[in-house]
Input
Amino acid sequence: MSMLTHSFDRPFDGTERLRISKERKAQLKRVALGALTLLSMGSALTGLIALKTAIYVWHLHA
Output
C-alpha cells in the first residue's frame, strides 16, 4: 500500500484520537521548553561569535 493512501480507506472518527495523560503532557511541555531554551542559547551564542568576528575584522582593517 502506498504511503500517500495509507489508512484513507477508513472513515475518520474523532473518538480514535490519542488521549495523553496530564503527567505526559507536563513532561512533553518540559522537554519542548528545554529544547526551545537550548535553541535560543545557541542562537545567542552564534550571534555573539558573529559580532566578535565583525569587530575583530573592523579593527584589523582600521
Summary: The helical segments are 22-61.
